[in-house]
Design brief:
Layout (H helix, E strand, L loop, with lengths): L1 H28 L11 H78 L3 H56 L2 H16 L1
Helix pairs in contact: 1-2, 2-3
Length: 196
């Protein structure tokens, strides 16, 4: 019962303005000015209403499936683009994790260098230890700097990729969706709404 009401309700709602326009036309048409009697005035109006209803039914029958298909396809396309953006984000996060792992390995390498230096004897040992500490600090700073630069680079590339995708999506949406027929149809729909 509810599904039947759901099917009938849009038709009933769309017919209410039509019925109101017909009533208004009949009231204005029977105003009585002019003194003469126009033959077939009511029947002409009835035929116009019947023609209009037939036209609306044909348009509904012919265009409803195409419009529905367009919006379903568009929804799928947007979902696919979102999935691609999520994949790009996951790739960037994986690269960031790799850089972090490399940074941890650098710390391990530094510790191995310190252990080797500790094996040296005498004054040479002290000099090598000092050089090793300085080298380790430089390596750490350079590794951190390199890691930070890689992270910044990855973020910037991701941003540029997302901006490119958004630009491509916007241009393709405009290119695909706005044809002269679409513009004409949108204008006609707007005019029909204004007339109602």
């Amino acid at each position: 019962m509810k599904s039947r009401i759901r099917k009938i309700l849009p038709l009933a709602v769309s017919l209410v303005p039509v019925v109101l326009m017909i009533c208004a036309a009949l009231v204005f048409g029977s105003g009585g000015e002019g003194g003469g009697k126009e033959e077939g005035g009511t029947m002409t109006m009835v035929w116009r209403v019947v023609n209009f209803i037939i036209l609306m039914a044909l348009l509904w029958k012919l265009l409803a499936d195409k419009i529905k298909t367009y919006f379903v396809d568009r929804r799928d396309e947007i979902a696919q683009m979102i999935d691609e953006a999520d994949k790009a984000k996951a790739d960037a996060e994986a690269q960031y994790a790799d850089i972090q792992l490399k940074l941890k390995n650098v710390e391990k390498d530094i510790q191995e260098i310190k252990t080797a230096i500790m094996g040296e004897l005498g004054s040479e040992k002290a000099r090598i230890i000092e050089e090793g500490k300085a080298a380790a600090e430089r390596i750490i700073q350079q590794a951190r700097w390199t890691a930070d630069q890689e992270v910044v680079k990855a973020k910037n590339e991701l941003k540029e990729h997302v901006v490119e995708m958004a630009g491509d999506m916007a241009s393709s949406m405009i290119t695909k969706s706005m044809t002269p027929e679409d513009q004409k149809r949108i204008l006609e729909d707007y005019l029909n709404k204004v007339v109602r």
